[in-house]
Structures are given as C-alpha cells and as structure tokens.
Design a protein that fits this description.
The complex is a heterotrimer. By secondary structure, chain B is mainly alpha-helical. Chain B has helices at residues 3-11, 13-34, 49-63, 78-97, 99-109, 118-141, 143-148, 151-172, 178-195, 203-221. In chain B, helix 4 (78-97) packs across helix 5 (99-109) and helix 8 (151-172) packs antiparallel against helix 9. By secondary structure, chain C is of the alpha/beta class.
C-alpha cells in the first residue's frame, strides 16, 4: 500500500481551504463532462472531470470530514488502493490536458483544472506517473530539456538559426531589458519561430537577450504535477534572469510554461516577483499597439480563409485573448474567420498537459482532435494560426495523421513575415 | 394514529431540535473547511479580482439561471439547465415568496414580507417538482451521472423531494387529511434540516466560496468569467 | 321514569301536529340524518321503503319514547357551554331538545343549592341507574389527588367516576371536558384531563368547542335519545356529523385563500373586503368543527365571517397551538436567539476541534516532502 499511502499523504498535505471548499461545493451535476473534449470525443463517462478528481475527493472526505469519519466507522468507505491509483493515473494523464474548460461550465464555478493538478501531485508522490512522461521529466532534470536539447545542442541550434535566417540573437547580455526564453519545441521543431521572434524584437529596437542558463521555458515538472521538479525548472529560468539583471522575462510561444511562470511561480519562488513576466503574444500586441513595429495590412488576405486556435493556457488561462485578434484584423481583415466556440470558451487542441508526450494516449488524442477538425471545417478555413507551439505540434501531427490539407502557423511567424521594414 | 399529537411533536420539539442541529452543523462545516488553511496569493494581478468576483456572482445568480444562452454549453446540457433551473426557481419561490413559509420566517425573525398570490406560487411549486423529476431521471440514465452518483446523491434528492411533494399535497388537500399531510410535511422538513449539514445539500453555502474563487481566478487573468 | 312520551308533553305545551312534524324534520336535519337508518330501537325494518321519510321516523320515535333523564356535571369550567345551549337563539330546536330531556341535576341552572341538590342528584342516579345520560362540562384536575376541584367536599374525579358508573351514555361537552381545554394550557398546574382520559371503560362522546356549538350537543343528545345509540365517531371521539370536515373546507372565505388574497391586519382594506384570515393566524385548515356550515345563533355567523381568525377551539391543546394570531404554518416551538447562538457556538467549538485534528493530519511525516 505504499504508493497509495504516499499519494494520500500528498493529497492531505496540499488540501487547504481553497481545495476543500470547492470539493464541498460539488453537487455531482455532471455538467463538467459536457465541456470536456475527451468525453465529448469518446463518450467514456470516466473522462468526466468530476470523476478524474474522485480520488482527491475521497481522500479529503475520509480524512477531513465528519461524514467521512462516520462512514469509516460504519464500514461504508471505499478505501483507495494501488489499482485505483494506476487506473486514475491513466485518466488524469492520458485523458486530460488541464485545459480548464470544465471550470467555465461548472455552475458552482469549481476550478477543476487546479484540483486535477493536485491529483497529479499525489500521483507524482506515489510514483504513478506514466513512464513516457516521467522519462521526459528525468531528461529535463539531467539535461535541462525533455527533448534532448542539451546545452551543446542548444548552442548549436541557435548558431544555426542565426546563420540560416541571418538574424541577430543577443546571448547572455548583461543588463539587457528583456530576457527571452524559448521552448525546446521551437528550438528543435519550429526553428523559424526563433528567427521570427528575433526579427520582431530587433525591429522594435528591444534591448533583449537569451540566456544559456535559462534556455528552456518548457516545464515538464508542471505536467508531472511534482512541485519539486516544477520549482527546479522554474528556478533555472529565474536564476538566469537574475544573473543577467533583466527587468522582464518573455515567454515565447509555449502555453503551460506561461501558466507556471506568470500565474503560479510567485507563490512558490518569491523571486519571480522581481521580474515582469509577459507572453510573446502580449508583447506583440504591445509592440503593434504602440507602433514600435508596423504591419502590412492584409498581408495574409490572399491565401484562403484563416482561422485562429485559442490556446488554453495563453487565451483562456492567460488572458491574451484580444491581442491575436487585433493583429489578425490587420493581417487578414477579409479572410479571418473565428471558430465556434472561441475565446475563453474555445475547445482545447487535445495535445497539451503532457498528453502528446505519451504515445499510449495517442488514440484518445486523435479522437479529441476530431472536434477541432469539425470546427475548422465549419469555419471553412484552410490555415490555422495559434500562439502555442505545443498546439502547433499537435496540429502538425494530426494533419499528418488525418491527411488534412491545412496550413498550420504561429502568430509570431505571421507577424515577422508581415513586418514593414 | 393520533395525528394531532404527531403534528404537535413535528411542529414543536422535533423542529426545535432540527433547527439547532442545522445551525450547529453548518457552522461546524464552515469552520472545518476554513480551518484547513488558506495561502496568500503573491501573483501580480492583470485584470481585476474583485471585478471577476462580481461578474461571477452576477452570472451565477442573476443572469445564468434566467438566460441560459449566456453559456455556450446550454445546447449540450438543456436537461440539466432546465431541470436544475426549474427546481431552484420553484423551491426559492415557494420558500421565500409563499405565504405559508413567510409566516414561518415571521415567527422566527419577527418580521415578514409581501408574498406572491397562491396560484402563482402553485405553478412554481409544480415546476419545481417537475424539475426534480427531470433531474432524477437524468441522474439515472445519463452515463456520467450514473457513474458518479451513489447513495448520498439519491438520498439527498429524496430528502429534498419529500417536503416538496408533501407540501404540494398539503396545500391542495390531495390524499390524506390535512393534519396527516401537515405532519408528514413537518417531519420531512425536520429530517431535511438535519440532513443538510451531513450532505451535499450544504452546497448552498459553499457556492459562495467556489464562485468567489472562480471569479478571482479568471478576474486576475483578465478573462471574462 | 316520567310516564308521558315526548310527543305527548309537546302536545300538552300546545305544539300542533303539523308543527311537531316540522320540528321532527328540523331535528333530523340538525342531526345530519339524511340517510342514517333507524334501527331496532324503534322497531322499524332496516329498509323502511316508500312513505317513510326521516321526519316521520323521528316523529315516530318521539311519539313512542319518554323523556330521558340527564345528569349534567360541571367541573373546571366557565359554564359557557351551558350558556350557549340555553341562551341560544334557537327556541324551536333548543327547546325541543330540552323537551326530550329532564335535567335532573345542573349546577348552573338549578334554582336550589346546597346539600339538598346533592341529595336530589344521588336519588336520581339511583332511580334511573343505567338509563340516564351523563353530560360533563369542564376539565377534571388530577394533580395532588384532584384537590383543585372539590364540590360539596368531594373531588371531581370522585364525582365523575361515581356518576359514570350508572350512565347509559357519557357526553363531554366543550373542549375542557373533551381534551382539557383552558385549564390544560401550559404550564397546566392542575394537570387537567378530559373525561375520556379518566373514564376508560365506557365510550365517551366528545363535543369539543369553546363553547361547543349548541346544535352539536343538542343533536348528539337527541341522537341517543331517539335511537338509543351513539353516532359515528372520529378517532378523537367526535361525532362525524358535526366534526367530519374542517372549518377551512366549508369556509365562506376559502376562495380568497385559494387566490392568495389575505387580510394583513384587522382594519386594513383586505379585512374590510373580507379576505382570508390565514395570515392573521386562522387555524381553520386543521380544525374539525361545524362552525362554517351550521354556524352560531341559528346560522347567524361564525368567527371568520365576523372577521376573526378561527382559534381551533375544537382541537386538543388549541391554547398551546402556537398563538392565536401566529400563522398556522409557523412552528410551535422555535429556539430563542440564545439557543441558536449556543448551537452555533457548539458547532464552532466542534469545528475548531476538528480543525486541530485535521491540521495535525496535514503535517508531513518524517521523510515526506
């Protein structure tokens, strides 16, 4: 029973009034299921968000409530077993991207995404994380990145981008204003993004730099749910920022990293508040808004309908909902069409939360993507723009899998391509 | 069976005890939940936490129950929206705007208020009962609800339904004589009062916590609630 | 036993044959006898067939029966029930009934007093043993061996038990004799009881009310006088004829209840319009009595019609029924602010205790993160 014990200890340790009051508020109405794209796509009732956090609720009830104590005394309690942990590990890691759409529809407003995160913390403590995900975490611990981007590989890639696209990328510049931290997904899979962002910042005259210490913004500890690993990866970024004496940190096109650094880090590592933290999407909006960069109007109006995919952690949970639209209105006033639903109610791509790293979960991931296919087709679009490179990875993989004829691009890429020189 | 004696007991000492158990129980629940500890949020705010909280409550209490299309998910959940909405509407109308219950509050608080005409309260009570039945049927046949529902859910439904159905029969003189129905109504109300702190019916209090948290989480990120 | 029949004594008083039949009809109507079958007491077949209406049956009975002796005892009472029946504005019915009886003993109505009257009662009880009707008015105190009601040196319990032994029928008139009435109200210092709580070996008919409706008492006595049996009773021993429906079910203001139009105070527009008195504390819905149909003073009026909410005076313990002007739906007992505060404090204290236990559980054990 050791795994279970460890999980339960973790659940209990992290259950405060914040979690408890929400667990108490749930009326088992089941609305959250209707918002979950995994449930919608597969019809598997176990994918209902309320069911995913059931172990947390059970542990809470059994340990902390009078009713729980009474049920234990009467022998009415279902004790949590190792088998339960294994089963729920699959539900929580394979079939959840922590997109948090469930909390938008909950009539009680329960923040299921965060509660699910708490469940993952228990899983991590019990060693019940899916092997593939854990392997990636360990890689990031040892090598600094889950995608095999060691310091040497990083150096090499950045050099190559500088040469190939002829952009200047300041490195380890002390007392620069802004530290830009790329994700290994961009460095390894979408290097044009690096060039694009460099081009934009240089055009805007920004005093920026990248850091060899803070070279990875991706945080697989956050997917795993382990606070220890999350803090480790965050502190690498913050230490790099501190060493260079920058005033702000820009998170490039990555979603969960922004969630972790901007909306949580300060509660774990107080030094996070020494910096202003912003997402590249927000920065782009700022630069366009105050005229530091100028865009060619209608630059993308001649290539068929273009639609925008809201990334869960950047739009719904990040707040950068209007900036992409403002930019797209300039870049493609005629051909930009919204998907439905959109903005904070948008549907997740299905690949976030670490799901795409888990091959075993592929069937579920592809099933969820069918909802997106439907949405894009209804919008009549052939090009999909987005602000998160994990979404881009998912879209690219699915376009390949489903043999679709779409173009998948990033917003930064579009802005760079439409820059007025 | 001396129903007059049963009625006196149900309206007298049983109600007295039930009300005290209700008060003590709810305070206990609140203290234990709050006592589990709260941590300070040091993350800088982008939008407005307070604004988010206000919108969260407005949408939760004032707008959402009445304009379901505010939420895009209505299309996928019409049963729960309609059933849940009818039930709550009917329940609140009868409890707070029905003459009979207003007199109960008057005796407890010392002041009363204007109430709706009986035929209107009647329709709303019937709507509430229909809502409850819709919710029960949904809970039994929907795969997700079947999975997540256990004895706690069905008992909670029963203990809320009994006062509604006995109250309705009472007012309309359906079935057994008035004092029998009144006794059953009072007994079911007393049982409900005791059951609330022991069950999820207490969500009416925790609602305020979770909706405030919801408002804060989205408000601080500048996202529309 | 007086020799002449009831009909004969009526004829002596100058009541014509036609009037006699009319009176019989009125009596039948008052007793609610539209299809009660007279039984062997009258030597009539079960199925009278054509030509036999209720009036004629009653008339026949009155013609063949002689007047019944009645012993009327009063204990912890106000004599209101006696006042109601004797001063009632129904000369025909009241007098008719009184003409079917000879009242051998009645404290209030007797001209004489003292030990001679007591002796007369003893004589009557002996002479008519097994034949007289015992009517009781007022409650019987049992605290301290019944010392709170002593008449002529004897306790009420004693007097009642003695009189009940030789009675052919026992009728408890008024709420006090039926259920204890006013003396039983909290704190009930005399431990007042109704007749049926003391006399348990014989059937007791309760005619509750405060006072009892004269027609109810009269009609029940007449039923026994004519048919020799007690009428059909409910589970509180009240004759179904008069107590079978609630005041609410026959109330003239019922449409206003249904429409939700209530008087909010005694002189507001609602009251002037004759709206329902539910919000002013009317206990009509749970009160079984004939007030709304038979009414008082030969159908002149009844409390609700005159603008006062029903007190529920024919129900047991109506004095403790939650206040005459408190809504019927309100609870009978509710905790005071102090009790609620105490409950909240208890809940909070238990909560704090539970919190301490929970916080201790939360502390990570050695080796854990």
């Amino acid at each position: 029973m050791t795994a279970t014990k460890q999980a339960i200890n973790a659940f209990i340790h992290e259950t405060g009034g914040w979690a408890a009051s929400q667990l108490e508020a749930c009326t088992r109405c089941g609305m959250c299921a209707e918002a979950c794209h995994f449930y919608q796509a597969t019809g598997n009732p176990e994918y209902a968000p309320v069911w995913k956090i059931e172990l947390l609720r059970r542990a809470y009830e059994q340990r902390f409530t009078l009713v729980g104590a009474m049920k234990t005394a009467l022998g009415l309690n279902k004790r949590i077993t190792d088998e339960d942990l294994k089963h729920w590990s699959e539900l929580n890691y394979y079939a959840c991207t922590v997109c948090n759409k469930c909390s938008m529809v909950c009539p009680m407003g329960i923040d299921l995404g965060s509660l699910l995160h708490d469940v993952r913390a228990g899983m991590a403590a019990a060693g019940m994380v899916p092997t593939e995900l854990m392997a990636a975490v360990n890689k990031q611990v040892e090598e600094g990145s889950p995608l095999g981007m060691t310091s040497a590989v990083w150096d090499q890639r950045i050099e190559w981008v500088v040469d190939e696209w002829e952009v200047e990328i300041p490195r380890d510049v002390k007392d620069a204003d802004t530290l830009v931290v790329f994700s290994s997904i961009e460095v390894m899979k979408f290097p044009t993004n690096i060039a694009a962002i460099a081009k934009i910042l240089n055009k805007a005259g920004e005093k920026w730099t990248i850091s060899s210490k803070a070279r990875e913004i991706v945080n697989f500890g956050f997917y795993e749910g382990s606070l220890e690993h999350t803090k480790l990866f965050l502190s690498r970024v913050l230490e790099g920022a501190k060493e260079l004496g920058v005033k702000r940190i820009v998170v490039t096109e990555c979603g969960h990293a922004y969630d972790a650094l901007r909306w949580h880090a300060a509660n774990w590592l107080p030094e996070a508040n020494d910096f202003e933290i912003i997402h590249i999407t927000g920065l782009l909006g700022e630069l366009v808004g105050n005229g530091r960069i100028k865009l060619k109007p209608g630059a993308f109006d001649d290539d068929g309908t273009i639609t925008f995919h809201d990334a869960c952690k950047i739009q719904r949970k990040g707040g950068h909902i209007q900036e992409p639209r403002d930019i797209l209105k300039i870049l493609a006033p005629e051909s930009f069409k919204e998907m439905t639903p959109n903005r904070e109610e948008s549907v997740c791509c299905g690949g976030g939360g670490g799901v795409i790293a888990i091959k075993v979960a592929d069937p579920i991931r592809y099933a969820a993507f069918e909802l997106k296919i439907d949405q894009v087709n209804k919008a009549g679009a052939k090009t999909v723009a987005m602000t998160c490179s994990n979404c881009r990875l998912q879209y690219a993989d699915c376009v390949d899998h489903f043999k679709l004829d779409w173009k998948v691009t990033g917003l930064a890429q579009m802005v760079a391509d439409a820059l007025v020189e | 069976m001396n129903w007059n004696a049963v009625l006196q007991f149900a309206r007298g000492p049983f109600f007295y005890t039930a009300l005290l158990v209700f008060v003590a129980g709810m305070i206990y629940r609140l203290v234990t939940v709050i006592g589990l500890g709260w941590s300070k949020d040091r993350v800088p705010v982008k939008g407005s936490k307070a604004g988010g909280v206000v919108m969260s409550f407005l949408k939760g209490i004032l707008i959402w129950p009445f304009i379901p299309w505010v939420k895009n998910t209505f299309k996928r959940n019409p049963l729960i929206y309609i059933g849940g909405g009818l039930f709550h509407l009917g329940l609140f109308a009868v409890i707070f705007l029905g003459a009979a219950h207003m007199l109960v509050f008057k005796s407890l608080l010392g002041f009363g208020w204007a109430t709706l005409p009986l035929p209107i309260v009647d329709w709303l009570a019937a709507a509430g009962i229909v809502g409850m039945l819709i919710l029960l049927i949904n809970r039994i046949i929907h795969p997700v609800l079947k999975l997540i529902s256990g004895p706690a859910e069905y008992l909670a439904w029963l203990f809320v339904f009994l006062p509604m159905i006995t109250g309705y029969s009472l007012t309309h003189h359906l079935g057994p004589p008035y004092e029998v129905m009144y006794s059953l109504h009072m007994i079911s109300v007393d049982v409900l009062l005791i059951w609330i702190p022991l069950s999820r019916i207490s969500h009416f209090i925790f609602y305020f916590f979770s909706r405030a948290i919801h408002g804060q989480e989205f408000g601080k990120r500048g996202v529309k609630v | 036993m007086p020799e002449e029949t009831i009909a004969q004594s009526l004829k002596k008083k100058g009541v014509s044959r036609r009037d006699f039949l009319k009176l019989s009809g009125a009596l039948a109507a008052a007793m609610g006898l539209s299809n009660v079958l007279p039984v062997s007491a009258n030597g009539l077949p079960l199925n009278p067939g054509r030509g036999y209406s209720m009036n004629r049956i009653i008339a026949k009975a009155l013609e063949t029966k002689s007047r019944l002796p009645v012993i009327w005892l009063e204990f912890q009472d106000c004599a209101g029930c006696s006042e109601a029946i004797t001063r009632s504005n129904s000369p025909t019915l009241g007098n008719l009934v009184l003409n079917t009886l000879t009242i051998e003993y009645h404290e209030t109505l007797s001209a004489a007093a003292g030990f001679q009257v007591e002796q007369a009662k003893q004589d009557a009880m002996q002479k008519y043993a097994g034949q007289y009707i015992l009517v009781v008015e007022g409650s019987i105190p049992v605290a301290e061996d019944g010392i709170y009601c002593v008449i002529g040196g004897r306790t009420a319990i004693d007097i009642l038990t003695e009189a009940a032994a030789g009675a052919a029928a026992i009728i408890a008139t008024g709420n006090c004799a039926a259920y204890g009435g006013l003396p039983r109200a909290k704190p009930n210092p005399t431990d007042a009881k109704g007749v049926w709580e003391i006399i348990t070996d014989k059937p007791v008919v309760n005619i509750p009310g405060c006072p009892a409706i004269p027609e109810a008492t009269a009609g029940t006595i007449a039923h026994f006088a004519i048919f020799g049996t007690l009428p059909e009773l409910d589970n509180l021993h009240r004759p179904m004829t008069f107590y079978g429906v609630t005041v609410h079910d026959r109330c003239l203001r019922r449409p206003f209840y249904e429409a939700g139009k209530f008087a909010l105070s005694f002189d507001d527009q609602g009251a002037k319009n004759g709206y329902c008195l539910y919000k002013l504390g009317c206990k009509g819905p749970t009160t079984y009595n004939a007030c709304a149909s038979i009414r008082w003073e030969t159908g002149l009026s009844f409390p609700v019609q005159s603008g006062h909410p029903c007190l529920g005076c024919s129900q047991p313990d109506f004095w403790d029924g939650g206040g005459f002007y408190q809504g019927q739906s309100a609870p009978l007992e509710h905790p005071e602010a102090v009790a609620v505060g105490a409950a909240a404090a208890v809940g909070a204290a238990l909560g704090v205790g539970a919190t301490l236990i929970n916080q201790a559980k939360k502390k990570p054990k050695g080796g854990e993160k």
